[in-house]
Amino acid sequence: MRVVLVGAGGMGKAWLATILADPAVELAGVVDLDLAVARAALAEAGVPDVPVGTDTVELARAAGADAVVNVTVPVAHHPVTTAALFAGYPVLGEKPVAPTVAQALSLVAASQVSGLPFVVSQSRRYNPHVEAFREQVRALGTPGSLSTEFFKAPRFGGFREEMAQPLLVDMAIHQFDLARFLLEADPVSVYCESFNPPWSWYAGDASAAAMFEMSGGARYTFTGSWCAPGLETSWNGAWRLSGAAGSATWDGDHDPVAEGATEGSGTAAGTDPGEGIAGSLAAFTRFLADGTPLWGEVHDNVLSLAMVEAAVESVATGARVRLDDVLDRAHARAVADEQREDVLAVLKGWGSVRAALSR
Questions:
Q1: Can you give the pTM of this predicted structure?
Q2: Over the stretch 57-72, which tens digit does the pLDDT of each residue have?
Q3: Rounded CA gap, 232 and 250, in Å?
Q4: Radius of gyration of the chain (CA)
Q5: Ordered structural domains, the chain, with CATH
C-alpha cells in the first residue's frame, strides 16, 4: 500500500519511521506546509529522495498513492481528511478525530458520502496487555466500576502549557477511549471537576477528576494530573476493574492481574494486535486489503471525543452532562457549519446521532 504522510513534525516523524518499518507499506510522499521541514524529516530518516509537497491531493495523485495518513495538527484534521476522502483516498488519522464533535460528525457524513473509510488511530488499544485485561474484564462478569489513575509531570513547553484544559483535551481521550473498549460500553453522562495545583507550570487546569455513567450501568472514574512529580504512573495509567466475580488491576506497563476470574482468562485471543501506531497502521493495511475488522473507524470513534467534550462542559457548568445532549448540540452545529451540500444532506437525514454512529 502506497501512502502519503501529511505532517512532518514530531508525530509525523514517529509515523514516518513506522511507515518505513512496515513491509506492507510504501512511503509515496510527505506533505507539509513547510517543505524544508518535510525534507529535513526525510533526510533524517535516510530517504531524502521521497517526493514532498504542500497539497495532499496533488501529491497523492502525482505519486500514485493508495491512501493518506493524516498526522497534521488537530485544527487541520477536518479539511485535510475531507479533501482526501473526496479525492478518492482512504484516510488513517491521528487522534482526535477533529477538534470538536461537530466537525467529527461532518467527517462521519463525509465518509458515508464518499464511500471511503476514515480510521482514527487510537493507538493505546494496540497493546497485548490491554487485550489481556479486556479478557479478564469479560471473565469477571457484569462490571460495576472501572477506574484510572493517571499522574505524570511532563514539561512539554509550547501549546500544551497554554491550553485551558491540557489534561482533559490533549491526554484523557486515550483513557476515555480505553474505558469504552474495556467495558464494551458507551458513555451516558459525566460529572467532572478540574483544577490547577499552586505549583503547576501549566496555565490551564492540569488536574481533573471525572465520573462517567456507562451503558449497562457501570461507572468509569478518571483521576489525574499532569503536574504530579514523584511515583508517576504509566502513560497508560493505572487501572482497576470491579466485577461480579472478582477484580482485576493493570499498572499500564505489565501483565494485568485478576482475582476471581475463571482459569485461563486474561490471555488475549486471536492475532497479536501489534503495538501502538504500528498496530494501527497494520490494522488499516489489512482492512483495506481484505476487510479485516479494525478499531477506530470514525463512526465508532466519535463517542470517545464526545466524552472529552462532555467532561469539559461539565467543568464549565458545574453540572452533570448527558452525552446525548452533547451529540444533539454538535449535530445542530455541524448542520449549520457544513459547506458541502452532499454532506449536509446526510447530516440532515439523521434522525438520531447515536443511531447514525452505530452503523
A1: 0.94
A2: 999 999 999 999 999 9
A3: 14
A4: 20
A5: 2-124+277-290 (3.40.50.720), 128-259 (3.30.360.10)
